[in-house]
Amino acid sequence: MVHIEERVEGKKKKYYLAKTIRDKDKVRKKRIFLGTDLNNTQLAKLKADAMVELGEIDFENVLNEKEIKEIEGLKTKLNNKIASFDKDSFYELFVSEFTYGSNAIEGSTLTLDETNQVLFEGISPKGKPLVQVQEAKNHKEAYDFILHNKRKKLDTKFLCELQRIVVKETRKDGIGELRTVNVRVGTHVAPPFYSVPRKLTALVKWFNSNVGEYNPVVVSAYFHAVFEEIHPFVDGNGRSGRLLLNLMLQEKGFPPLIIFFEQRQAYYNALEKARKEKDLLPLIKVMKKGYGKILKKLG
């Protein structure tokens, strides 16, 4: 449960956002200092940002024991299957499928075969927009970037660099920087641009504080859902977000993940469910189905 705590010290009143956390048989609290002598408007704004940093759900109880066991089983099967493949062969297969699926979700018309030809044969398909060819090349470069990037913590600079690679040479503005305009994604009106730096910083702080505390699938799903809700960039949010999802899973020993084009509507619905109801299960089910489809493709 999340609530505001007030503490009076002399003539000053200090405000904290506190969250009660049940850890097995123990109960503990996490607090974030909001400020001193705040009015209602200031308090509401600071509370909204601190809610992101604290995490708005009960992370310990997102998955039950059966669901955790199923995910661990899938993880083991897929990791073993991947290990049986030649490393370069799997890399080409995965990067082609991942790039094709992620870009197709965003509207690219390149087929899987055409994507593979662009990435690994240097062939540009006739009759397809050059911007889509560049997007495919960018996506591969961005995946290589997260695969080989060595860092201690996640930060906004890293996120901006990832987005820069994703959209470079495909647009003239909004490259490698947080958006300075308001945007709408379908029916979702993203937070106003001036709140993006605060909200993204709060999300990054949450991730760095909790990456080792909860199940990696839950952590990555929550980050992904909130990242897409914030929509920090003018363009490239979906592709960057799915790349980050892979980064977070792979750093915790999980196999690389693809959200396939065929899952697009279920994926969008799951993000909406997470945004409106703070329910991560639909998104985790999409992730599990993606893993299942990879396993079937590998035979």
How would you characterize the overall build of this protein?
- The model has no long low-confidence stretch (mean pLDDT about 95).
- The chain folds into two domains: about 1-55, no CATH class; about 65-299, Fido-like domain (Fic-like fold).
- It is mainly α.
- A three-stranded antiparallel sheet has the order 1-2-3, covered by helices on one side.
- The chain is built from eleven helices and five strands; from the N terminus they run E-E-E-H-H-H-H-H-H-E-E-H-H-H-H-H.
- A hairpin with a 2-residue loop joins strand 2 and strand 3.
Radius of gyration from the alpha-carbon trace, in angstroms: 21 Å
Number of helices: 11
* Low-confidence runs of at least 5 consecutive residues: none
Terminal residue distance: 45 Å
Largest sheet descriptor: 3 strands, antiparallel
CATH C-level class of the largest domain: Mainly Alpha
Features:
single chain; 299 residues; 2 domains; two-stranded antiparallel sheet
Task: Describe the secondary-structure layout.
Elements: E1 2-9, E2 12-23, E3 26-36, H1 40-54, H2 65-83, H3 87-105, H4 112-120, H5 130-148, H6 156-167, E4 184-185, E5 188-189, H7 196-210, H8 216-230, H9 237-250, H10 264-277, H11 281-298
Antiparallel strand pairs: 1-2, 2-3, 4-5
Helix pairs in contact: 1-7, 2-11, 3-4, 3-5, 5-6, 5-9, 7-8, 8-9, 10-11
Condensed summary:
With about 300 residues, the protein is mainly alpha-helical. It has eleven helices and five strands, in the order E-E-E-H-H-H-H-H-H-E-E-H-H-H-H-H.
